[in-house]
Request: fold
Amino acid sequence: MFPDCSVLSMLANNNGRIRLLEAHDPDSIEVVRRVCGKDGQSFHGVWMSGLTQSTYLGLPDTELISPLERSHSMTSLDNDCTFPQRRPLCAAFDADSGGKPWEVPVLLSSLAAKGVSMVIIEDKRAAEPGSKVNSLSDMSGSQDLAKIHDFASVVQRFKAQSTNMLITARIESFTVRKPQSNEVDERISVQQTLDDALERAHAYRRAGADAIMIHSKSKDPSEVLSFMQRFKLKDPHTTLVVVPTAYAETTEEVLYNAGANVIIYANHLMRAKIRAIDEFGSRPDAGVQALIEADGVVAACLEARNYGCMLRTLRVRDLGVSAKRYAYAAQSYARKNMSAVARMLLDGRTAGAADARLITVKELLKINGQQVCAAEPFMIMPPLGLRDDSSLEGWQLKARL
Reply:
C-alpha cells in the first residue's frame, strides 16, 4: 500500500506546518522514518540536500555534477507501508540552479519515480560546472544572483513540465549580500536586500512557482522573519520554506508564527554520521590501518574525514572481511548517533538542539570541499531537434565514482 505522501498532502494534513530532515542514503532515510520525539512528534519527510549528496558521492558541492546526475544516484523513497513501523514520508529535492533546460523533463520524471514531490531551485546565476559556491560559505557573496526575468524563465520551464511536483523558488538575496563596515550603509544594504528578496518572490510567484524558500546565513533570524511577515501580508496563501541552519536557536514556533510552512533541517544527519565515525575511528579495534592499506579511495576518505563517502565505497567494493566488519560496526555506530540527533531535534524544536552530537557546518563545508573520488567525463545527449545553442554548452560533464 502506497498512501498519498506528497508535500502538498502532508501540509494539508498537518495544518500547513511540516518539518523535513536531511537524508543521504537508505540508513538515514530509515532514521527519519522511524524516530519519534518524547511527545510522539516526528519528521514528515526528507530533504535531499545538494551539499550532503555531493559529500556522499565524494565530490564538492559546486555543481560538478548536474541535478539530473544526482537524482540518478539517489535512493528511492520506499513508502510501502504494509510493513509495521513504515511511516510514509514526503521528499523535497535540492536542484541547485536547475541544470540544463533539456534535462528538466527527465529530472522531474526521475524524481517523481523516487518519491519526490517538491523540487527547490535557487536563483543564483547558473555557473559552469564546478564553479558554484555554497550558500553558507564565507565566499557566498562572490556568486551573483540571476536576473529576475532569467530565473522566472527557469521557474516557467520547470512548471511547464510538472504535474504534481511543487516547484519552489529559492531566493538567495540574503546569502550573497556583502556586509558594509559603515553602520548607515549597512542599514541601507539590509533594507535594499529585503526589498530585492520580496520583489523576486512575487515575480517568481507570477512565473508559476508553487512555493518560495527564503535562505539566510545570518545567525540573527530578523531578515528571514521580516521577509515572511511582509510577504504574507501581500500573499497569505503561498507556501514558505525556511532552513534555519544559521539561525539555529530560533524555535519552530517562532518560524511558523512568522509565516513558515516547511522547516528544513538541512544537513544534520551527515554531520551526525561524521561526528560518530570520528569517535569510532579512534577506538583501538576500529581496524583503520587495514582499511587505509586496502584501498586508495577509502584512504582518501579517511584522510578527508568524508565518512559518508567511505561507507558508500565499502558497500560497493569487496575489500575483504576486515573491511566488511569495520563498515558494519561503523554504520551501526553512526546510526545510533543519527537517531539520537533526530530525536533531539524533535524534542528541542531548534536547528541547534543537537549541536553537541554534530560536527559544525564549517567542518562539513571543509570536508565537502575535498574531492575524494575520481571524476570521469561522460556524455548526456540533448533531445533531437534542439535548437537552443546556449543549452548545448557543457555536454561533457563530470561523473561520480
